[in-house]
Amino acid sequence: MPSCLSHDMTSPLRTACIQLVTSKDRDKNLTSACGLIEKAAKEGAQFIATPEMTGVMDIKAEKSQRLAYSEQDDPQLKEFQRIAADKQIWLLIGSLAIRIEGEDRLANRSFLIGPDGKTAATYDKIHMFDVEVGDGQTYRESSAYRPGTDTTLSNVRDAKVGLSICYDLRFPQLYRSLAQQGADILTCPAAFTKVTGEAHWHTLIRARAIENGAFMVAPAQAGKHEDGRETFGHSLIVGPWGEVLAEGMPEGEDMVIADLDLSEVKKARSRIPALNNDRPLK
Questions:
Q1: Backbone angle region of 59, left / alpha / beta, with phi > 0 → left and psi within -120 to 50 → alpha
Q2: Is residue 208 part of a domain?
Q3: Given a cut of 60, is residue 2 above it in pLDDT?
Q4: Mean pLDDT over all residues of the chain?
Q5: In this structure, what CATH number is given to the domain that contains residue 49?
Q6: How confident is the model over 153-159, as a mean pLDDT?
Q7: How sure is the predictor about 7, in pLDDT bands with cuts at 50, 70 and 90?
Q8: Which of 1, 60, 135, 255 has its CB 3.0 to 4.6 Å from that of 195, i.e. a possible disulfide?
Q9: What pTM, to 2 d.p., does this model score?
């Protein structure tokens, strides 16, 4: 496949969301993710995104910590870098659990990998999912993960892409900040629970797109996982006017594709100039 860098910079950015049902088995998860990434690349996707916790999913904090690697040593990350270079794609790994030197907690970290196989940007999830959602499960993400502190904006071809992860979706100020910094595309790889997803997923994803006049790319976990949790699925790609461009199945592995015409961002923001009209509150 020719390098995605050689495409006409005014052409749509073909974007894919990979939907997974991540287990406790790192090797199995890697095989599943790589197979769908290769399928998306074969269909011409230039920017491919996977869900939160692509690498491994275990609700028990101590097990997640035992399975984690440092960024330098993570074998899954190295394979994702290899496949990005081989397929000449931009690849967003929604998140991996990363061991941090000198810390007793991990980072829930997104990796944006370029067509050269190098990590172009990383983002550590800022908002920790510490809730009781009403499905009999209590989640205390902060017991295993250290919250991030910084926003991340990077380039994918001619687009500016702002990164977020899952529970961040409920904090609109993060997306407004990224949009004000120039983000054309906002990403939200997720592992929404079935209960919260049924109630809020579509509404929140479309709202973040509409509020900011930006594309939303939201690959999701989907189904019953080995660790006992159940996720909502419905990976979404949404346009800056709030229209759903592609949607994944409610359960099971899937891959959806949409062509993102970046001129639609400028058009939406000129029709509703919310970013220009925004005023700080005292």
A1: alpha
A2: yes
A3: no
A4: 93
A5: 3.60.110.10
A6: 97
A7: very low
A8: 135
A9: 0.94
Residue found under tokens 């969301």? 17
pLDDT at 131: 84
Whether pLDDT at 280 is above 50:
yes
**What token pair was written down for 197?**
């997803």
Does residue 139 have a pLDDT over 60? yes
| Domain count within the chain | 1
Q: Which of 96, 146, 152, 167 is nearest to 122 (CA)?
A: 152
Asked whether residue 6 is assigned to any structural domain, the reply reads no
Question: Which structural domain, as residue segments, surrounds residue 23?
Answer: 13-271
Q: How many other C-beta atoms lie within 10 A of the C-beta of residue 73?
A: 11
Taking the C-alpha atoms of residue 132 and residue 68, their distance in angstroms, rounded to an integer, is 25
d(Cα 273, Cα 266) in Å, to the nearest integer?
10
pLDDT grade for 282, boundaries at 50, 70 and 90: confident
Q: CA 52, CA 248: separation in Å to the nearest integer?
A: 15
Please name the amino acid found at residue 91.
Answer: L
- Positions annotated as catalytic residues are 52, 125, 166
Q: How far is Cα of residue 155 from the mean position of the Cα atoms in its chain?
A: 15
Structure tokens that stand for 101 in this block = 């030197």
- 107 phi/psi in degrees, rounded to 5: -105, 135
> In DSSP terms, which residues pair with 112 in a beta bridge?
92, 121
Are 91 and 119 in contact by the 8 Å Cβ rule? The answer is no
Q: How many residues does the chain have?
A: 282
